[in-house]
UniProtKB/TrEMBL annotation:
Protein name: SAF domain-containing protein
Domain SAF: 344-410
Any Pfam family matching the protein: SAF
CDD domains tied to this protein: SAF_DH_OX_like (cd11616)
PANTHER family from the UniProt entry: SAF DOMAIN PROTEIN, STRU PROTEIN
Length: 429
């Protein structure tokens, strides 16, 4: 049976997959509603630091508030799930420890919270689906290794751009195409100086968290997402920060070709992005067989020698349940790091920084991220942006636009992300 048939079978048997969701913000709330319309799966429990937000997520999916149990301990969580009652809590650790939860989904958007939740879920032998790409690019390899040892699945999410790109990559790779570039569209102009303050009105208008909007506009999110793709398929950025040309879909094969072919690339097997094709994702491919070129030309795929496979949408958290299902039924991930990273998103000073002040992390006022080859970043001592939080103290003056190195700052050694990163570098390298 295929995945859809498996879900229908689980529904008919009365044995649905029980999801424990952590984070009931915009992404989590939409996910709960989508799951409510699926067969063979349901949201058994929700955790959010704001308990009422968790209740609202259930109510939005059609469940009356009077039927929702509020829990503050593990016994209450497990009893509610056993009785088939929807249950909410403000303690995320209860989700990872709940006996009857099959798959945990992290929708917190906070690297520290995601790291702690992933570790707890793996310890309790529960599959973990991570919506926090920022966590994955920083400590994904060690989480994957720990999950493998525990016999469970650690995975990124379908619907998020890295997951959608990986699906296109797998399609092209399975067919035997040579993949030149894997990429995504960017849907807003790049502004490295953007801050939550400069974008406050736009964020309010779009009903977005200002920090989230900031990390999109200043380019950090694109760098993070393509770092995840690089680490999952073994590609590297062609240059620091990638090229990011402006392009329409039909221009991608020509632009993303080698320089000797009139394109912008120095080499094949790279990650990149393009302004003008958002919210889509793509891979640019070629082949060494003329018969395939003839067939592709006949199929109106272009004149070659390069061709683009393009998906014009990604459905974010609406697709996330499929990653949970795939992990539970097939014991397979959607997207995970291969092992030793190929790329890193490193921290760059957004403004002049003075010794003694503290950084604020992704989507803030002090730093943005830029992609670099992992080996270059490691050799140069560049600071991964996923290790930056509001306890990161600047030790020396840093100029605007300068890449921040480990020796320029004091990092938060109590952070679970920092601790896991240190372990990762010992084991993975």
């Amino acid at each position: 049976m295929n995945l859809n048939e498996k879900l229908h079978s689980l529904d008919e048997q009365g044995k649905p997959i029980k999801i424990g969701l952590v984070g009931a913000g915009q992404m989590g709330k939409g996910m709960v509603s989508q799951i409510s319309r699926m067969k063979g799966i349901y949201t058994a429990a929700i955790a959010d630091i704001n308990g009422e937000r968790a209740v609202d997520a259930y109510v939005a999916s059609g469940i009356p508030s009077s039927e929702i149990i509020k829990a503050s301990n593990l016994i209450q969580i497990d009893d509610a799930i056993k009785s088939g009652k929807p249950v909410v809590t403000e303690d995320a650790s209860l989700i990872a420890n709940a006996e009857l939860v099959d798959v945990v989904i992290d929708a917190t958007g906070i690297p520290e919270a995601g790291a702690a939740l992933a570790l707890q879920s793996i310890t309790n032998k529960k599959h973990i689906v991570m919506l926090s790409v920022e966590t994955d690019i920083t400590i994904g390899p060690i989480l994957k290794k720990l999950a493998d040892s525990a016999g469970i699945v650690y995975t990124g999410s379908a619907g998020d751009e890295p997951g959608a790109i990986k699906e296109l990559y797998d399609f092209a790779d399975a067919l035997g195409f040579e993949i030149i570039v894997a990429g995504k569209g960017k849907n807003n102009p790049l502004d490295r100086e953007a801050t939550p303050e400069t974008l406050s009105e736009q964020a309010k208008k779009n009903n977005m968290n200002p920090k989230m909007l900031t990390c999109f506009v200043d380019g950090t999110k694109t760098m993070v997402e393509m770092t995840a793709v690089a680490n999952a398929v073994g590609f590297i950025p062609d240059c620091r920060g990638m090229h990011g040309p402006k392009a329409e879909v039909d221009e991608l094969p020509k632009i993303f070709s080698l320089k000797e072919q009139g394109g912008i690339l120095n080499r094949k097997g790279v990650v990149d992005f393009a302004n003008g094709v958002a919210p889509g994702v793509f891979v640019v491919v070629t082949t060494d067989l003329e018969t395939i070129h003839e067939e592709l030309r006949y199929l109106k795929m272009g004149d070659g020698p390069n061709y683009v496979f393009y998906r014009p949408y990604h459905l974010c958290s609406i697709e996330t349940p499929l990653s949970a299902v795939r992990a539970y039924i097939y014991n397979e991930p959607t997207i995970v790091p291969l092992g030793r990273p190929k790329a890193e998103t490193v921290a760059v000073a957004k403004r002049d920084l003075r010794a003694g002040e503290y950084l604020d992390g992704i989507g803030g006022f002090t730093v943005y991220g830029i992609i670099e080859e992992y080996e270059v970043a490691k050799t140069s001592g560049f600071l991964p942006i996923g290790l930056v939080n509001d306890k990161t103290r600047v030790k020396t003056d840093i100029k605007k636009g300068e890449i921040i190195t480990y020796n320029m700052v004091e990092i938060d050694n109590e952070s679970p992300v920092v601790q896991l990163r240190k372990l990762q570098e010992k084991i993975v390298g």
